[in-house]
């Protein structure tokens, strides 16, 4: 290889590192793969403010159904709800280890299991027409369908329930 060819390759190599890195995220959706009971679900990462494990939750006397209590998150005390119960399922039979905080409202949702962080192509997410409750979309990953829970509708259901209760 001639010196000028080697110099040109070196310049091209250096130029690749000098350019700002670009990540194509517009074509992807970031999800948290979770479990409610034994059932697989997913949450959209952009709808969440944080993921926590083993946070202490202080029960409240006479709490509304699904309200587990309160807990502190980054300097704020927020209500913690059993996600399974909020979406219409049975209450958890064991303590819930995992919590997420909603990005749009001061509320935390507790669930049974955290499986993984998923980055999936948007075109693999399908509308889940006819789905009841808080599921609007679903994704198939590793041969398993995960219903994607809509955090905005869950938060609205919590607010509506709070307005109805004395």
The coarse silhouette is globular
Mean pLDDT over all positions: 86
Helical coverage, percent range: 10-25%
**Highest-level CATH class:** Mainly Beta
Name the CATH architecture: Beta Barrel
CATH superfamily: CheA-289, Domain 4
How would you describe this protein?
With 166 residues, the chain is of the alpha+beta class. It contains 3 helices and 11 strands, in the order αβββββαββββββα. The protein has helices at residues 3-18, 83-86, 151-164, and strands spanning 28-36, 39-44, 48-53, 67-73, 76-82, 98-102, 108-111, 113-121, 125-127, 135-141, 144-149. The strands form 2 sheets. The chain has a 6-stranded mixed sheet with strand order 8-1-2-11-10-9, with no helix packed on it. It starts with a helix and ends with a helix. The mean pLDDT is 86.
Could you provide a short overview of the structure?
This protein has 166 residues and is of the alpha+beta class. It has helices spanning 3-18, 83-86, 151-164; strands at residues 28-36, 39-44, 48-53, 67-73, 76-82, 98-102, 108-111, 113-121, 125-127, 135-141, 144-149.
